[in-house]
């Protein structure tokens, strides 16, 4: 178990950073999708949902190409930080954000749509501007959506494999997350260590999901 | 355009629904907006509140455009609080929390009633700590009305605000609301399908029928036209009186109407001195030319016949009456008119059963 500690720590760090960034990126995107009447909405929805249907290796492959220092994005990153995006923690975070995007956006969009226009109109009629309304009406009414979106994004990031392998490789302490370490243990026929990691992941995921369903039952949705 | 008016020009299309016409509504007192359901009453309020941004509409408030071409003032800057028929209370807040939400965004410097006055007037003091999802329909509408007032609007929009209250509670609340609005100098647009409710509140009427805005009329002119129009409204009159006493033993509220006294089934919630308006249907008024001894009808008012309007091809004759400066209307049969030999200028007694003055369900 001690030898797995760096992988576990790295995984938790990656999932946490990814989830935080997803809250920042996903909330405005979900709000826009929930309220817009723009014609491009279905296109944006489809792009957001794409990571659900594509093999992770497809996303990993194109991200790997994008992260190459020869491309504008990869080159800019190297000149800014002196490090490459590929095979780095930052690269893993970017890949995880893209890969877990639908797990953040879809629960939030559903929650925002449930709040409904009626309460937005009521808030506006009482003098609340758009940002005020979001903060004081939409966010509290969408609390369950935020919990669900955060937990799903976190767990999904913990469980990813293909994208990480493509973009990050298998560098101990740098890009070797739990799922990669597990694969490693199986390759080297170290089944005891593999069991420890695999069972650990199952137990933790089950516990977190149970907690979410408990919370959701305790605090039923208000809107309706 | 006058300084204090809301100018409305609508060319509003949504699917197959249309609402067109113009109106200039004075920003004083209460303007009743009436019409059958689906006529477009709520749509008009929504356009004024800024919730419906159809390109053909033009709205100006006291000379400043709220909507004109590409110009559009956001709803939260218009200060038109709307008491929604479906209340739209915030479910994550208590009753007090909903009022706080409005109070926190209300402008400073307002001569209107305090929050405590509003809570007392709407009768929600006992509800303040309750979560809003637990309230009954009538309670929710009271809170929605209080919340709209606490927001200190410059124009109050009322969309069937008391439709979920029972008739007695509504009759007690309407005069109190009218008093509050008058004391605050707060103009209101009041949508209702109930003639009784309109009469209790409005100073003037804007009829809407079949997606067209009609002509703004004074309350008296509108009442005089009732029954002649095709909208199915019954002929009726408005009597304004002041409460003189509450007779608790007999459960009657006594009222002075000019020099005359009226009694109606008790409205114990209202204080003596409160002005109330009674919507009296013409069919509930009888006439007597001789002695009225031995009748059970308590309300007997001396009246002068001002006009007779027999309806050809029907049994009816509508009689306009003057009772000390106020007008009343009676619908009697043409046979009765002939037998009594009624003529304009004649003195008669107008009889109104107290029971017909009881609050009516819609």
Give a verbal description of the structure.
The complex is a heterodimer of chains A (224) and B (362). The model of chain A has no long low-confidence stretch (mean pLDDT 90). Chain A is an all-alpha fold. Chain A has helices at residues 5-35, 41-53, 56-67, 72-81, 89-125, 130-141, 143-158, 162-168, 178-187, 191-218. Chain A has 10 helices and no strands. In chain A, helix 3 (56-67) packs parallel to helix 8 (162-168) and helix 5 (89-125) packs across helix 8. In chain A, 79% of the residues lie in helices and 0% in strands. By secondary structure, chain B is α+β, with helices and mostly antiparallel strands. Chain B is 22% helix and 35% strand. Chain B contains 8 helices and 21 strands. In chain B, strands 3, 7, 8, 9, 10, 11 and 12 form a 7-stranded mixed beta sheet that branches. Chain B has a 5-stranded antiparallel beta sheet with strand order 2-1-4-5-6, with helices on one face. Chain B has a 5-stranded antiparallel beta sheet with strand order 17-21-18-19-20. The interface between A and B is medium-sized, with 21 and 26 residues.
């Amino acid at each position: 178990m001690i030898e797995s500690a760096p992988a576990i720590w790295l995984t938790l760090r990656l999932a946490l950073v990814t989830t935080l960034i997803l809250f920042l990126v996903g909330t405005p995107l979900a709000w826009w999708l929930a309220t817009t009447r723009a014609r491009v909405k279905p296109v944006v929805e489809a792009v957001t949902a794409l990571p659900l249907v594509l093999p992770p290796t497809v996303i990993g492959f194109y991200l790997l190409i994008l992260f190459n220092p020869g491309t504008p994005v990869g080159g800019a990153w190297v000149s800014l930080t002196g490090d490459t995006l590929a095979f780095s923690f930052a690269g893993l975070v970017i890949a995880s954000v893209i890969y877990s995007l639908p797990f953040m956006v879809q629960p939030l969009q559903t929650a925002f749509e449930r709040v409904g226009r009626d309460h937005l109109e009521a808030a506006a009629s009482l003098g609340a501007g758009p940002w005020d309304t979001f903060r004081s009406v939409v966010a509290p009414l969408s609390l369950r959506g935020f919990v669900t979106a955060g937990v799903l994004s976190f767990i999904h990031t913990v469980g990813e494999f293909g994208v990480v392998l493509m973009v990050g490789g298998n560098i101990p302490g740098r890009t070797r997350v739990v799922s990669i370490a597990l694969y490693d243990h199986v390759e080297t026929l170290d089944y005891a260590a593999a069991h420890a990691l695999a069972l650990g992941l199952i137990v933790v995921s089950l516990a977190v999901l149970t907690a979410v369903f408990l919370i959701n039952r305790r605090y039923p949705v208000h809107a309706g | 355009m006058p300084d204090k008016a809301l100018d409305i020009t609508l060319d509003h299309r949504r699917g197959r629904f249309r609402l067109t016409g113009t109106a200039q509504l004075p920003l004083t007192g209460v303007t009743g907006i009436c019409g059958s359901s689906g006529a477009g009453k709520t749509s008009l309020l929504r356009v004024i509140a800024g919730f419906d941004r159809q390109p053909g509409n033009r709205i100006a408030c006291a000379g400043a455009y709220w909507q004109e071409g590409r110009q559009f003032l956001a709803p939260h800057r218009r200060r038109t609080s709307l008491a929604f028929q479906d209340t739209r209370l915030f479910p994550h807040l208590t009753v007090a929390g909903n009022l706080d939400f409005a109070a926190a965004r209300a402008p400073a410097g307002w001569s209107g009633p305090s929050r405590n006055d509003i809570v007392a007037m709407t009768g929600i003091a006992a509800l303040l700590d309750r979560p809003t999802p637990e309230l009954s329909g009538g309670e929710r509408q009271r809170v929605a009305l209080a919340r709209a007032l606490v927001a200190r609007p410059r124009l109050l929009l009322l969309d069937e605000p008391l439709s979920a209250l029972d008739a007695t509670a509504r009759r007690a609340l309407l005069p109190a609301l009218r008093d509050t609005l008058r004391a605050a100098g707060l103009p209101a647009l009041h949508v209702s399908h109930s003639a009784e409710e309109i009469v209790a509140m409005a100073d003037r009427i804007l009829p809407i029928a079949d997606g067209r805005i009609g002509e703004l009329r004074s309350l008296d002119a509108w009442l005089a036209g009732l029954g002649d129009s095709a909208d199915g409204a019954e002929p009726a009159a408005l009597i304004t009186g002041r409460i003189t006493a509450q007779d608790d033993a007999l459960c009657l509220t006594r009222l002075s109407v000019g020099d005359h006294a009226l009694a109606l089934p008790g409205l114990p919630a209202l204080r003596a001195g409160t002005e109330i308006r009674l919507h009296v249907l013409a069919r509930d008024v009888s006439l007597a030319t001789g002695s009225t001894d031995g009748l059970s009808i308590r309300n007997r008012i001396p009246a002068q016949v001002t006009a007779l309007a027999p309806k050809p091809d029907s049994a009816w004759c509508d009689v306009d009456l003057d009772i000390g400066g106020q007008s009343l209307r009676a619908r009697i049969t043409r046979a009765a008119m002939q037998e009594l030999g009624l003529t304009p200028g004649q003195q008669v007694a107008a009889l109104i059963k107290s029971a017909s003055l009881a609050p009516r369900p819609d």
